[in-house]
From TrEMBL:
The lineage of its organism: Bacteria, Pseudomonadati, Pseudomonadota, Alphaproteobacteria, Hyphomicrobiales. It comes from Aureimonas jatrophae. The keyword Chloroplast does not apply. Signal peptide: none annotated. It is found in: Cell membrane. Keywords: Cell membrane, Membrane, Transmembrane, Transmembrane helix, Transport. GO terms for molecular function: transmembrane transporter activity. One of its GO terms (cellular component) is plasma membrane. PANTHER family: GUANIDINIUM EXPORTER (PTHR30561:SF0), SMR FAMILY PROTON-DEPENDENT DRUG EFFLUX TRANSPORTER SUGE (PTHR30561). It is a multi-pass membrane protein. One of its GO terms (biological process) is xenobiotic detoxification by transmembrane export across the plasma membrane. The keyword Transmembrane helix applies. This is Guanidinium exporter.
Amino acid sequence: MPWLLLLIAGLLEVGWAFSLKNSAGFTRLGPSLVTFVLMAGSFALLAIAMRTLPLGTAYAVWTGIGALGAFTVGILVLGESADPLRLLAAALILTGIVLMKVASPA
C-alpha cells in the first residue's frame, strides 16, 4: 500500500507542476488554487507512505516520478524538446527509480 500511495503522490506532483506552469507565476486564480490543492494531496500521501518506506527511497522515488511526469507532460502537452540527450537523462532518472524500488526493504 505505501508504494501505491507514493505513486499517487508522484502523479499529483506532476499535476501540480503543470498547474503551476499554467498559473503564470500565481497570477491566474484557477490554476493557482489547483496547484495548492494538488500540492497538499501530494505531500499528505508522501507523508503517509513515509510511515513505512525509508526517507531516502520515498523522497527519491516521489521526486523522480514528478520529474519524469513533468518532463513527459512538457514534451507531449507543451511542445518542449525531446532531443536525445534529454531522453537519456530521463532514462537515467527512471533507472534510478527502479533501482530504489528494487533495493528497498519495504
